[in-house]
Structures
1.
Amino acid sequence: MGYDAARIEVLEGPEAVRERPGMWVGSTKERGLHQLVFMVMGQAVNEVLATGTGSVDVTLTSDGGVRVADDGPGAGFEAPAAGDTGGPGLEALLTSLAAGSEPSGRHTVVVGDLGMGLFVANALSSRLTAEVRHEGVRRTQEYARGVALAPPCAVGPAPGSGTTIAFWPDAEIFETTCCSFAVLAERFRQVAFLNRGLGISLTDERPTGGARTVRFRFPDGVRDFAAALDAEAGARLHPDIVSFGREDPRMAGTMEVALCWTGSREERVRGFANSRATDQGGMHVDGFRDGMAAAVTAYARKRELLSARDPDPVADRIGEGLTAIVSVKLDRPEFLGATRGLLGNAEVRACVSEAVREHLGGWFEENPERAARVVERIVRDARD
């Protein structure tokens, strides 16, 4: 049988997504289902953070749906007026892949592994309703498998402002439409840690015994994150968590670092770029280790804890018992590999290294007794 251009079928709009869902959410199993939630929740987080701190409430409804509500400004369904600096209207985000492409920049948060936005979530849902509360008016629109059933319409007054997206993942696409409360809660907790002051709640209305809710808001951000990891690891060697934040134009972004040493031998160093977990590390984590090694070595030699003949402590020994969070937010993050778990911005390494060396070195000088306990153990382990 011959095959020529006449046999090529071009799929556009929602059908292109529904034909190959794995290309857009990675899987038609539970992992892909969670990506839908992360896409919608990520849009809400960025709406809230664009105007300062606020809150996002996610509800797993008893009928198998997911409702994501925020108290942001409530962007309109239509495109902004000429000269307005806002992004595309909500209707465009729900119906156009180009309008909902992955956000970028230090002020945006990527919640899931994929950032295709509301368009994909709409296409892979059997039903989706959108509600906008803005300037005292509540407007809604409903979709079925990515196709609008009617234009947006005003349905009454609305106190406050914000956006609510409710969607029901399509059972014709996904092998399961039951989200894991634990998986969602853990990721939402991470996002709240990495964006100080942001409030996130997750409510599950599905249990027969009654709804359950968890709420996250961390005023100290990554410092609270390090404290939470530390609590899992055991008692600290000293009562302080060393933390700092810095903006560096050389890397076109900001960094936040928090660290402490525990009595255990396990290393817990977690790296994030624009709130995305970098499980394979990258330049920010390498820079953190460089700065740690430089600060420890300089202090040990200055205090004569190392002799001239002793080699510098190696990085893996310095990390024993260390709990740390290294979070960078960049205007132009460069991820390497198909899973995007490795940050590749070369300039980030030197910037983070310099900052860690300066801040940790300063903490050593200001807290000599506590510094001695940490550095002496590192030097002792290096000699063993």
2.
Amino acid sequence: MTALAHPATVTRASAAALTRASTAAVTRASTVARSAAGGLPRFAVVGNPENRRVTLFADAVRSAGLPAPRLLAWADVLRDGARFTPGEIVRIDSPGENAEVERLLRGAADPTRVEGTARWYTRFTAAVREVARAASAGGATLLDDPAELAVLFDKRRCHGVLRTAGVPVPESPTSGPGAAAVGSWAEARSVLGAAGLRRAFLKPAHGSSASGVLALESDGRGRFRATTSVELGPDGSLFNSLRVRRYGSEPQIAAIVDALAPDGLHIERWIPKAAQAGRVADLRVVVVDGRATHAVVRTSLSPMTNLHLGGARGDLTAARASVEASGARWTDALAVCEAAAACFPRTLCVGVDLLPKTGWRGFVVGEVNAFGDLLPRLTGLPGSGAEGLDTYGAQVAAVRSTQGKSGTYRARP
């Protein structure tokens, strides 16, 4: 499905989703009383105190002239639970980049290990549900919906939700009705062959930051090559690495996939992406309260464009010009991202990975990230309503805007 080549198709496919998001942004179901501090929102953040996500959000709150957010450390929440007070607006932030929290969630003493994502997922989603229960009991309102987070952190389910809503996504044999279960390299090999996928991405169902992702290529004669950041230990254990490497030995590829398989696997077609300055390119687009507010181009010499794996920020102005030169419209690209975000109307902010096809002639959505807003110093897109604001400032402004309409903040239905 080529979104930008056929704007009318995108409009028809995503109209219902966009309508839901628009309606949700205006009609919020559960009203929370104003805070005692002159009607100003009072934020609470569940996060890791040392994480710059928490710091940047707190900076945005203070810059808006609001009381500093109350911080609940993930480590404390996982051990002792959470308590909230009436009127608090609760942001659930990433539990990542903290060894103790990682141990509590994943049960691994070494935070560089790749395995254990299924256990992480089970414990994280249970913790989020408990935070939601505590927020409800305390009269607080969540900016992140527990059920939607559970979908966002399962690539198979997320892919299926997007496809059902008409959002363009890569072909996948592991999501939606009749999806194939992949429990080993032998099964993955069989699924790839049955789907006719000679180039595909194999991903841990609950992974993030490209951890455990393999870009697989087959020559059609039974030989495979994998590009990945996984480091395979001598004993078969898997480690995250900051260096992208290639494995051309099928026994090594099989060892990696067999170690990942117990946590769940997702397979999708490898979409040949557009290029910028001789490097493959994609975009991270942040959508706040249903509107695309920020975008960054990511470029790389490898299939993974993640900045921590050697990717670099590209030229957004040039990317927009390339889209327009292909005969498409930049607004259609943003509409695809907004349609993806509309599938999660009760979550204030998501980051959409938008994959441009060769020649910038169409886009598909690779992933939707619950914690995809860490783009320091990036200000809002022209016409987005977030000009001059970073991603966190845009979220604070969205909350204040909703509150300002009636003097209260309303959580989306």
3.
Amino acid sequence: MTGMTSTARPHLNRRLAEFGTTIFAEMSALAVQTGSINLGQGFPDTDGPGEIREAAVRALRDGRGNQYPPGPGVPELRTAIAAHQQRRYALTYDPDTEVLVTAGATEAIAAALLALLEPGDEVIAFEPYYDSYAACIAMAGGTRVPVTLRPDGDSFRLDLDELRAAVTAKTRLLLINTPHNPTGTVLTREELTAIAELAVERDLLVVTDEVYEHLVFDDAEHVPLATFPGMRDRTVTIGSAGKTFSFTGWKVGWVTGSPSLVAAVRSAKQFLTYVASGPFQYAVAEALALPDSYFTAFRADMLAKRDLLATGLAEAGFEVFRTAGTYFITTDIRPLGETDGFAFCRALPERAGVVAIPNAVFYDHREAGAPFVRFAFCKRTEVLADAAERLSKAFAH
């Protein structure tokens, strides 16, 4: 019969069937429906530096980037990325062969995994993990092998013995995220040294997501894995303008690595977006050249916001884990008499007028993340103060 649709096979590729709609879409919709303060999705509620916004306007008006930019990215931005890596970390990259501009870090992750994995390859990732990691590994036909970061005092820590035990003959790649979303963990030099030694010993590739590199607090320091012995030529490093300059909608990310690794990632990337964000690339090139005072002030502002929200959450009765990096705070809801992060977050808008994200969505081992809830503090100070007051009224006794 004509006009009938076969239901014998689902429309969605089975590799993606487990993912569905992201929790961010669900919770952001809930925020709109209830008029709640959205501390779920990690985007700022103010724009970044005015001079950088004007640089994008200038590029638009001058006709720079309004047509397809070069596939690897505009030369000005690739040069600026290389200069940033040299100035910050003494890492030298050739802008022409070792730098690739992407449509945000999300595309960089996708392109790297699609390029470097064959079906059946195992990928070790720290859980909880950014949700696109699992989806991209699945699209590439890989198998994800989670190594769980677990609470240790006031933070989450990596068990290096568990990491070593997770490596098998099928392991192709380590997917590292530091500073780590959602836990706020920043891997130490000692931990990174051990990871680097393991990668060299077992001849593993590494994709390292460092998009929060400029958001480290207290005594933490961000050290790129590519700086360790034997790592430069086996590491794909991912950066992003959105997190550092508060222009998340521009979707400008990048990859640095050896010529062969970058060429591989570019081969996949050209069939994803091909190119993106033309005029914004010129603006980000100027942003990366901002003086150190910008980065220092940006970090200080986020630190003050972290402390404001952390204090409010603690006063409301949450157990608050110390955030050493990123703009997220992970909390434990068990002191509130709660154990199910999903149920808690779905009820929170009506209960307190605030939206958060259940960390369990970032785990394969859902039970390990069940009592943890993530709040974003990349919002205006008055918004965070309002959220803290709402939570205090809802939970404090």
4.
Amino acid sequence: MGSDATAGGTAFGACPVEAVDVHAFEVPTDGPDGTEQDGTLEWDSTTVVLVRVHAGGRTGLGYTYGDVSVASFVRSKLAPVVVGGDVFSPPALWQRMGARIRNAGRPGAGAMALSAVDVALWDLKARLLGLPLVRLLPAHHDRVPVYGSGGFTNYSTDRLTGQLAAWVEQGIGRVKLKTSREPERDPQRLTAVRGAIGTEPELFTDANGALGRKEALYWARRFHEEWDVRWFEEPVASADLEGLRLLRDRGPERLDIAAGEYAFTPQDFVNLVDGPAVDCLQADVTRCGGITGVLEVAGLSAAQHLDLSAHCAPAVSAHAFCAVRRLRHLEYFHDHVRVEQLLFDGTLPPVGGALRPDTGRPGLGLDVKWADAEPYRVQGTRPS
């Protein structure tokens, strides 16, 4: 198709990015006394950094979950690189942004900033072409299975069991709780959860790196033998590759060891699959380089014969991970579901235990609810 051909009323020729604007919103948690806990962290809010990219009379949006400083990173380092670039070539701009932040720091905040911009570019490209994002990507699937995720360590037993049982009642056949902050409490918590959800749903646990290697191996065996746990996420710190390999090699055969949510660069994922250190790889589209980053990780997982699971950000992940051949599932995380429903029109409810992208709306299918978001603003200015 030549450069004069059109789709959705927009020519396929170069379309320069005209402007980038950045916003940040801090949404309090709804946990006990305003806090939530996992094995290694306590928090009282979730911060969303929202990026909008403008070209050809349309606007694309992307976002990440991180510190408000990520917004400043986008403005100072990435916006100048993207403006003037061709919105129809997100991977080329992705590479240019990566080069720009080499000295400023690619892992962590840099990768989160890059991810948000990359998602916005893909969203804008799809909108300009009049396509839902899933149709623009090399999709292998039309839906992404989910598992309910929450079960924070400071929840009461009633709230813990009620939350996980509610997901099962909605048709979600996999649920996860946080563990290992106070390991001695976990048997009671797991017994209560298994009693509430029954024997059929799959039960997952997440230690968030709270345990030592042998301690984690002990709990891996107990989790599986006593409560039929099938997924043990970050039993040790994700940087402890030898510890992850120990758990993978010596743990129960039907208990998958998972990590990858804190992988920011391609090499981070290579390190996890070298060995390998996990049974199932995880990737977060808002941390690993956006849509372009997910496509790279998807190729690596397929080449290594490992499934890939999406970490959180369901409104974006529902599109992005349809393009993952070795797709396992998506973490339908309580905090992100709350925040995305607050900030955006067009979020997707699970149907039959999966999220199916809305093919009747262009791009991600999201629109910002500015009036609802405004009370939570901590950076940027509401568009006029």
